[in-house]
Amino acid sequence: MVERSPRERTVRSAALLFRERGVGATGMREVVAHAGAPRGSLQHYFPGGKDELVAEAMTWMAERAARPLRASLDVEPPPAPAEVVRGVVDRFREVLTITDFRGGCPIVAGVADAAWESDVVADAARDAFVHWLDPLAHALRRGGVPAGRAERLALMVVSAVEGALVVSRARRDETALDAVQEELDLLLEAL
Asked: Which distant-in-sequence residues (6+ apart) come within 8 Å of 100 by Cβ?
């Protein structure tokens, strides 16, 4: 088991709580309690308050989303684009299973609840999606998708999967993720 610092535990807890409850419905005291961090650690580690914590949680989640994509960049031969995309969809399926359909994406939660009121959160959301989209596009290019199309396809994949995640949570089933996966498979087969 990895030993995390109080700051790391707080960021992780914030991301996990934001993905289930949203930013607006998650209090800072709840985050500290969930993290098992000292109460005064919020002011110490996040002098910018909740906006800074939301931004850090988005960055943390983007890193987690990008990690398997970056790992696929070292695999030889390169994974097929359909395999890369299936991995993205499967990670969302895992979130839904682990959280009994309560878990979404803290990046989306930050955009929905806080980005319009905070430049810090808006900038973090933009950067988080770039951090996630860049290795996805790179993995698609390595798998044979032409460069210009790989960037558009990466954006479409993330947009479709994020939307399917919202619908899946609302319906409490994976039908939307199934549909997105099937259509993306067809698209990628045609490339």
From this structure: none
Give per-residue pLDDT as tens, 128-145.
999 999 999 999 999 999
Structure tokens at 17: 């709580």
Structure tokens at 154: 């990466």
Nearest CA to 28 out of 121, 11, 106, 123 is that of: 11
Spatial separation of the C-alpha atoms in residues 176 and 91, rounded to whole Å: 14
Question: Are residues 93 and 177 in contact, defined by beta-carbon separation less than 8 angstroms?
Answer: yes
Q: What are the E-state strand segments in 52-104?
A: none
- What digits encode the pLDDT tens for the residues 63-104? 999 999 999 999 999 999 999 999 999 999 999 999 999 999
Q: What's the pLDDT score for residue 60?
A: 95
CB-based burial of residue 181 (10 Å sphere; 0-12 exposed, 13-18 middle, 19+ buried)? Answer: buried
How many Å separate Cα 17 from the centre of its chain? 13
Residue 159's CB is within 10 A of a number of other CB atoms, namely 12
Query: Which pTM does this prediction carry?
Result: 0.91
Using left for φ > 0, alpha for ψ between -120 and 50, and beta otherwise, residue 144 falls in left
Matching residue, tokens 């259509």: 183
Q: What domains are there in the chain, each with its CATH number?
A: 59-190 (1.10.357.10)
